[in-house]
Structure formats: C-alpha cells, structure tokens
Write a structure and sequence with these properties.
InterPro entries: AAA+_ATPase (IPR003593), ABC_transporter-like_ATP-bd (IPR003439), ABC_transporter-like_CS (IPR017871), ABC_transporter_ATP-binding (IPR050763), P-loop_NTPase (IPR027417). Keywords: ATP-binding, Nucleotide-binding, Transport. Belongs to the ABC transporter superfamily. The chain has 298 residues and is α/β, with parallel strands linked by helices. The chain has two domains: 217 residues, P-loop containing nucleotide triphosphate hydrolases (Rossmann fold), CATH 3.40.50; 64 residues. Helix content is 28%, strand content 29%. Strands 6-7-8-3-9-10 form a six-stranded mixed β-sheet, sandwiched between helices. A four-stranded antiparallel β-sheet has the order 2-1-4-5, covered by helices on one side. Strands 12-13-11-14 form a four-stranded antiparallel β-sheet, covered by helices on one side. The protein is globular. The C terminus is likely disordered.
C-alpha cells in the first residue's frame, strides 16, 4: 500500500498554500505539524479530493486518484477539523446515513456501526440525539464515521481539538488501536497527541515540507541545544541565550526550559536536558504561531 504526492501544488491567486510537495506514505501513523496557514488542511483536502491541485498529482498504489475516484473513496476515511454532525439525528441514525452515502450495504453498516459504537464507548448513547452528546462524545462519533467503511487510508484533521486531556488521551489511544495496516495522516497543534504514537513526523511550514523523520530522530537533532535552569529572576535576562520553550514548577522551584541560540554558551547554572517534540516545534516554527503548551504557566 503506497500513497504518493508528486510535485503537489495548490495556489489561491498569488497565495501559495502548498508548494511542490513530494511525499510517500506507507502503513503507519504520520503526525502532521505546522502552524495555522502552513498548508495542513490544504494537503488533507487534496488527498480527499475536496479541492483540486493547481499542479502535481496524488497516486494510490501507482494510480492517479482522480482517474479512479470511486475506488479510491472506498479506501478512504476522513475526519474533518470542523464537525459535520446533524444535531437532530440519533447516533445510530447518523452512522447509518454516512454508511448509505458511502454505498455500504445495510447489513454491513449495521454490523460495523455496532462494532464501532462499542469500541468508541458510545453504544449506550446510540438512540440519543447528537445534540445531547458532550464534545468528547461527538469527537468519538466523528472518528467512528471515518472508520465506518474500514478504510485503508485515514485522514484526521485536528481530531482532538477542544477536548480535555483525558478525552484527548482516549481518542489518541483509539487512533493507535486502529493503526495496523492503515495509512493514518493526523494533523494537530498539540504535539503530545502524536509524540508517542506517530511513526513519522511531517513538519510543514508555509506550504513546504521541511522535515520527515521519526520523533526520536527529530528530538536527537536538538541534542545539546536545549537546557533547563532553576530561575527566579526576570525572564528578560535569558533572552540573549535563546528562546523559552516552557516554564514549570517543581515543588517550590520554578524552572525554565530554553532552546539555545549557541550550545556553547549556557546561562549560569543551566544544564542540558533531552529535547522534546515541543522543543522541535518551537525550534522550527518560532517565527510562526506558537504551539499549544500544557505547562506554560507558573
């Protein structure tokens, strides 16, 4: 199974949303990271054929997806960033409706819907109207509809947006469970959602793919570029040394994590620490919109 993008380009007037992207995806989880406007949603919509490329081509197992549209859609599951749920439908009605749109047989839809409702812990709510569900339940339902046709390719655009940490963890675990023998492309701003489950991280900046590496390889590239310091003085004193990654408290002490401008020049009393994927994000996207931090406050 191989999903390829060759010289993929999308422009809107003079704005380049995606710039000559070349990529090959085989089964595994691919975390797509980048600030707003980097081209993440554009890439996903091009793969799902919701928009057409200005130039370039998307191939699935060597075939142009536009020339084999229906066959490709049979292999595809898509969870968009914004909800496409119908509030007056029940959970079960919605899955049956999506199944009919996908051209699935009624018996197949019934069996698959029941299985997914069990796996997503929505079985007790299958007769409830969608408008009565919590945000976390609605996200799990969106995930279930993407999996309804047991797709080989799963496209997830900000699947955990707006969820609390517990619900994010639950959905992240579900994604990992279903990752066997599937190509999963997952876009997010929350790097902790993919740090543990992604086989490859794709860094997208201003429409260009700047890095494709396993999480461990990306963090290793920042070895000796990240330090930690027990600090209680004004943060401005650290500005000459580098960029602040995070600030956190341990017992009564406050620590600052710093991405160094020059690894040879450490702040007084600082020590090197092993980089995280958040550090990688800030290293490459510091001049863009900031990453979401769970611990960036005192």
């Amino acid at each position: 199974m191989l999903l390829e993008m060759k010289n993929l380009c999308k422009t809107y007037g003079e704005t380049i949303a995606l710039d000559r992207l070349n990529l090959q995806l085989t089964p595994g989880i691919y975390g797509l990271l980048g600030p707003n406007g980097a081209g993440k949603s554009t890439l996903m919509k091009l793969i799902c054929m919701l928009i057409q490329p200005t130039d370039g081509i998307v191939l699935f197992d060597g075939e142009d997806i536009r020339m084999h549209r229906n066959n490709f859609l049979d292999c595809l599951g898509y969870m968009p960033q914004h909800s496409c749920l119908y509030p007056d439908f029940t959970v079960q009605e919605y899955l049956y409706y999506v199944g009919s749109l996908k051209g699935m047989h009624k018996k197949e839809v019934a069996l698959r819907a029941e299985e997914l409702l069990l796996r997503t812990r929505l079985i007790a709510m299958k007769k409830d109207k969608i408008q009565t569900l919590s945000g976390g339940m609605q996200q799990r339902l969106m995930f279930a509809q993407a999996l309804l046709n047991d797709p080989e390719i799963l496209i997830l655009d900000e699947p955990t947006a707006g969820l609390d940490p517990q619900k994010r963890l639950e959905l992240r675990n579900l994604i990992a469970e279903y990752s066997k023998d599937k190509i999963i492309l997952l876009a997010t701003h929350i790097v902790s959602d993919i740090e543990l489950i992604a086989s490859q991280i794709l860094l997208l900046k201003k429409g260009k793919l700047i890095k494709v590496d396993p999480p461990g390889a990306l963090t290793s590239q920042l070895t000796s570029k990240v330090c930690e310091i027990n600090f209680s003085r004004p943060l401005k004193e650290l500005e000459p040394y580098g960029r602040i990654s995070s600030i956190y408290r341990r017992k009564e002490d406050i620590f600052v994590r710093l991405i160094l401008n020059d690894p040879a020049i450490l702040p007084p009393q600082a020590s090197f620490v092993y980089p995280t994927l958040e550090d990688v994000y800030l290293y490459y996207f510091n001049d863009e919109e900031e990453v979401s931090h769970e611990h960036f406050s005192l």
